[in-house]
Amino acid sequence: MGPRRLSRFGLGLVALGLFVQGAAAADITTETVIDLLRVASEKNPADFSRKNLAGLDLAGVDFKRANLAGANLAGANLAGANLFGTNMTGANLTGANLRRANLDIALLGNADLTKADLAQASLFGVLLTKATLVEADLSGARIIANLSNANLSRANLSNADMAADMRNQPMGLMRVFLTSADLTGANLTGANLARGDLSFANLSKADFTGANMLSADLSGANVEGAIFRSIRGRGEMKGLDTAKNLDKAIFE
What we know:
The chain is mostly loops. Helices cover 10% and strands 6% of the residues.
């Protein structure tokens, strides 16, 4: 018998495979990303690590736990995208639109999200240690994440829900970790930080007006110039006696 002919679908897979192997030297189009994801699965995710996806319109796309480690997604439109469980360690997401995106249990350690739009996004169980979120918009987002040593200076966290998830007690207390994070000049007005860990964070000139600070831990935090007007739970905040520059914070 002669050699078997490949089906059109089989030829497509071969072409996609060749593209992945040689993609480092070429830009990836939106259509190619969607084609690769169409034949991927959560068990066999697509690999976009270190690929250039900058500026692509990927709104609403299901990434099926794709590997995006080190990828360039600067300025990409990821609004409403499903990035659940994706690996975006070290990715460049500067100026990216992630509004209402699902980033639950994603890996974003060392990622650059400078000026990214994460408004109303879901960040439950997300690893963001040492990530850069300077001037990022996280307003109204649901955030239960590890943001230890992250840079959130001048970030917008207004009305963000960072309260501990009391329904997951068998898994241990699920709460936001902002340990040693830089929140200089950040907007946290109306945010829910109940039981959040802000120990040793730099909260200089951050605005917590109207925030829920019930049982929030500020041990060793720098609160110079921080605004705590009309906050809830002031009497139950933890570590306030060890906070730095407490006399220069604004309580009314």
